[in-house]
């Protein structure tokens, strides 16, 4: 009897670990749900990558929802999500705004030429100051901001087709139903 | 250029290795079961082929890093054209995929070493041991190939890589993972042996366990020594790199490496007992299974993203599921085998009384195992709370430190008695009489420390008294040995003495820092001076400095003691260009009796900075102690007894001699 004890103990631990694996697959388990969700997006004024003289501010973007995608030419995962994002942007459901983070403008432009530019406009944050307000700690990250400038959804890491289908689109539909 | 296809070649090498390991983990085991020599003979060449193939794959991945092949996703994610060449070698194991490749390589090296150094073992034993190690390899190779392929391409190739995690651009963390893996993987040898012993049903098997155990002991000792070094390196790194000045955080990932260490420490002692006396046979087998299972569990916890920690790696449920199944098969299978086949000790073991070295070793094992279970519980508890929806809980140092002190105090008190107590039967007054004067001396020293200590008198006294008690007791044993007839220490005893002295040294460090450390965190203007006791720290401002792949804010702090200049410290904050991560580099003046430690916090404007100043007494002793323990493991492994060919010897425990006369002979 005694010799079965170790196996029994291990099975208990195994069940717990299985629960852990199952939970780690659950959406946003690590989130510590972003404190920004449901809050107003930080105010910003950033230069446009393609026209360095022009700036766009958060106030100008109000009135319609938009998707803000943080990327950099130095970021490998961004390249991975790029086709997904391009497919999503081509549906023209919503403005997809690029947020070029901590990048050399020349590198960023070359990158867009090479892989295509799906963005409505690309904002450049070379210093990364606004990124801190957004709580960005890595690229890629993607935000959905509603017509009133409230952050409704956030995704850390590369966006996949499944993420778009199961998370981003439902969040967007909820906004559209709500008339925002 | 043909070099372009190298990664595909690496991929093929891994797949071939998987196939060969498939053979290695089946044919020899079946051959040993049915007594077919030709099948058993497959084991050794398969192991060497596995090593060659995995080494080839490893070399190709290293080449990809040196050549900056940004068509490999893994290289893109962990390198950068600015990365210094030295770090390109270590970047290979800088993240998940490459770590697994390193794991597999080290396992292949250990397997090959087992195959090379074990020609005198009976063929079926050899076949089973290598077969079981093959099963472990199989799991890791399959895991890598199916879920974590280091040779995955990104096409078209990226222009630039994301850079190696700055945390890993550091000597301490370069050496830490390989050492840790040497330890984890090393426990596969006693594990494979234990499984081989359980699989063996021949009538002589029960008796030969003790003989073959002698053969596995050096492997356990070396593995445990490597694990000790690996943990110590991690602790040293956390101390100088995280900027908090702590050396142990009870973080889940630290705990994951500490559990196999505790189980391994218990295993070392119980193996010695079983080998010499035949007692605790099934317990030793169970511990061998446990030490390796905990190594696998550690890997699981770190790699699956089930627990969040400062070390957190990308969470990926498919990986978690894979490792969980693998863990279930290996650990569940082993424990099932154990439940069905564990030998019955009652008839084979020599009896012993309550006062004997066996009893003391049993207590040692109980305490170490209890500590291990305590760490396991504390580590998994947040997961349990999350699963039962009790909310997000983290179990912190208060729980671990308290329980650990409660469990380790009796261990420290009993430690010096162990080597001086005879096997089987002992008059308790004999070792107590030998040690009484030394206990008194340690207590007096503790009392003096209590009154002399500027702060934390209780912990200081406990540190001084405990360390001296262990040190005196251990030296008393050395003296006893040298004085007796023959009068020499075997390598095994020297190793034991070194490791126990290591514990004494460690105790000084661990308890005296706790008691005596001083810390201040204040905002400082350039030119301002902070005084801590007799030391004063003058902050001379911060300058910008360009590193190879980072920009640093480098502070200058002049340290004076009684107005005499002691040293100049340069704490830094480094911002890495590619990822924008900020790393702290503390300015440290190391010393035997104390470290001066200065870290930069945040800039506060107008040239002012938040500055954290620590005085850390005896902190080096923590790592010196660990070094001595590791050295003890290595020295023990060198004992001639383990290398002697044991085949000629009749199987069975060493012949019984009346206890008192044999006591010192067997003392080790």
Write up what this structure looks like:
Chain A has one domain (37-177): Glutaredoxin. Chain A is an alpha/beta fold. The model of chain A is unreliable at 27-33 (pLDDT under 50). Chain A is elongated, with a radius of gyration of 20 Å. Chain A has helices spanning 5-25, 58-61, 76-90, 105-115, 129-134, 161-177; strands at 45-47, 55-57, 66-71, 95-101, 121-125, 141-145, 151-156. In chain A, the strands form two sheets. A five-stranded mixed β-sheet of chain A has the order 5-4-3-6-7. With 668 residues, chain B is of the alpha+beta class. Among the domains of chain B are: 1-164; 518-619. Helix content of chain B is 62%, strand content 11%. Chain B contains 23 helices and ten strands. Chain B has helices spanning 6-24, 27-34, 37-40, 43-66, 73-78, 85-90, 96-117, 123-147, 171-186, 188-199, 205-241, 252-277, 281-304, 317-341, 357-387, 397-414, 417-420, 429-452, 457-483, 491-516, 619-637, 640-643, 659-662; strands spanning 518-524, 529-532, 535-546, 550-561, 564-569, 572-576, 582-585, 587-589, 594-605, 608-617. In chain B, the strands form two sheets. In chain B, strands 2, 3, 4, 5, 6 and 7 form a six-stranded antiparallel β-sheet that branches. Chain B has a four-stranded antiparallel β-sheet with strand order 1-10-9-8. In chain B, a hairpin with a 5-residue loop joins β6 and β7. Chain B starts with 5 loop residues before the first helix and ends in a 6-residue tail after the last helix. Mean pLDDT of chain B is 85; it is low at 309-314 and 646-668. At the A-B interface, α1, α3 and α4 of A face α5, α13, α14 and α15 of B.
């Amino acid at each position: 009897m005694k010799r079965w004890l170790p196996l029994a103990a291990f099975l208990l631990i195994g069940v717990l670990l299985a629960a852990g694996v199952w939970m780690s697959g659950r959406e946003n388990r690590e989130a510590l749900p972003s404190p920004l969700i449901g809050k107003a997006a930080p105010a910003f004024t950033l230069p446009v990558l393609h026209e360095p003289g022009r700036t766009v501010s958060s106030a100008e973007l109000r009135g319609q929802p938009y998707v803000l995608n943080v990327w950099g030419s130095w970021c490998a995962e961004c390249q991975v999500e790029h086709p997904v994002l391009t497919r999503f942007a081509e549906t023209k459901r919503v403005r997809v705004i690029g947020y070029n983070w901590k990048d050399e403008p020349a590198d960023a432009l070359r990158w867009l030429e090479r892989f295509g530019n799906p963005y409505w406009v690309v904002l450049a944050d070379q210093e990364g100051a606004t990124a801190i307000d957004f709580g960005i700690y890595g690229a890629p990250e993607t935000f959905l901001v509603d017509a009133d400038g409230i952050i409704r959804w956030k995704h850390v890491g590369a966006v996949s087709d499944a993420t778009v289908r199961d998370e981003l689109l439902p969040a967007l539909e909820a906004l559209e139903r709500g008339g925002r | 250029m043909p070099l372009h296809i190298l990664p595909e070649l690496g991929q093929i090498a891994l797949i071939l290795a998987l196939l060969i390991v498939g053979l290695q983990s089946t044919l020899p085991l079946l051959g040993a079961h049915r007594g077919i020599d030709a099948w058993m003979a497959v084991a050794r060449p398969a192991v060497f082929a596995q090593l060659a193939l995995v080494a080839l794959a490893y070399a190709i991945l290293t080449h990809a890093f040196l050549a900056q092949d940004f068509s490999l996703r893994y290289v893109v994610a962990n390198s950068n054209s600015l990365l210094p060449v030295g770090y390109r070698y270590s970047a290979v194991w800088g993240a998940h995929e490459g770590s697994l490749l390193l794991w597999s390589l080290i396992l292949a090296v250990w397997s090959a070493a087992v195959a090379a150094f074990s020609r005198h073992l009976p063929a079926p034993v050899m076949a089973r041991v290598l077969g079981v190690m093959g099963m472990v390899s199989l799991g890791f190779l399959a895991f890598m190939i199916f879920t974590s392929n280091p040779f995955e391409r990104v096409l078209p190739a990226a222009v630039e890589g994301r850079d190696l995690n700055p945390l890993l651009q550091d000597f301490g963390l370069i050496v830490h993972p390989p050492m840790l893996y040497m330890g984890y993987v090393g426990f596969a040898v006693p594990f494979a042996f234990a499984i081989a012993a359980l699989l063996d049903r021949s009538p002589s098997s029960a008796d030969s366990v003790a003989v073959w155990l002698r053969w596995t002991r050096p492997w356990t000792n070396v593995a445990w020594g490597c694990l000790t070094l690996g943990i110590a390196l991690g602790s040293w790194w956390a101390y100088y790199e995280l900027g908090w000045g702590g050396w142990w955080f009870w973080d889940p990932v630290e705990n994951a490496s500490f559990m196999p260490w505790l189980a391994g420490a218990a295993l070392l002692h119980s193996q010695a007992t079983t080998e010499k006396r035949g007692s605790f046979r099934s317990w030793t087998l169970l511990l061998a299974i446990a030490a390796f299972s905990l190594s696998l569990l550690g890997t699981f916890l770190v790699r699956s993203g089930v627990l969040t920690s400062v070390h957190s790696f990308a969470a990926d449920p498919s990986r978690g599921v894979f490792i969980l199944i693998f863990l279930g098969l290996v650990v569940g299978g082993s424990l099932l085998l154990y439940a069905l086949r564990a030998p019955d000790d009652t008839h084979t073991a020599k009896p012993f009384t309550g006062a004997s070295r066996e009893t003391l070793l049993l207590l040692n094992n109980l305490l170490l195992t209890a500590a291990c279970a305590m760490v396991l519980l504390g580590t998994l508890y947040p997961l349990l709370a999350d699963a039962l929806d009790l909310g997000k809980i983290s179990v912190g140092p208060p729980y671990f430190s308290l329980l650990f002190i409660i469990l380790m105090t009796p261990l420290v008190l009993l430690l010096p008695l162990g080597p001086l107590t005879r096997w089987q039967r002992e008059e308790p007054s004999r070792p107590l009489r030998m040690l009484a004067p030394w206990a008194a001396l340690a207590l007096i020293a503790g009392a003096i420390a209590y009154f002399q200590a500027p702060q934390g008198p209780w912990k200081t006294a406990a540190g001084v008294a405990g360390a001296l008690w262990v040190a005196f007791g251990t030296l008393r044993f050395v003296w006893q040995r040298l004085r007796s007839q023959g009068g020499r220490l075997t390598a095994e005893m020297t190793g034991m003495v070194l490791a126990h002295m290591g514990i004494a040294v460690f105790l000084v460090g661990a308890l005296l820092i706790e008691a005596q450390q001083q810390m201040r965190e204040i905002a400082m203007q350039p030119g301002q001076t902070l005084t801590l006791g007799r030391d004063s720290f003058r902050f001379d401002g911060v300058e910008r400095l360009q590193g190879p792949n980072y920009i640093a804010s480098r502070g200058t702090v002049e340290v004076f003691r009684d107005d005499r200049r002691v040293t100049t410290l340069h704490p830094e904050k480094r911002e890495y260009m590619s990822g924008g991560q900020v790393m702290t580099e503390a300015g440290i003046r190391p010393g035997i009796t104390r470290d001066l430690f200065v870290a930069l916090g945040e800039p506060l404007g107008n040239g002012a900075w938040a500055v954290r100043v620590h005085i850390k007494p005896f902190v080096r002793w923590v790592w010196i102690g660990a070094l001595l323990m590791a050295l003890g493991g290595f020295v023990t492994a060198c004992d001639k007894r383990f290398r002697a060919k044991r085949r000629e010897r009749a199987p069975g425990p060493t012949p019984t001699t009346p206890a008192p006369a044999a006591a010192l002979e067997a003392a080790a």
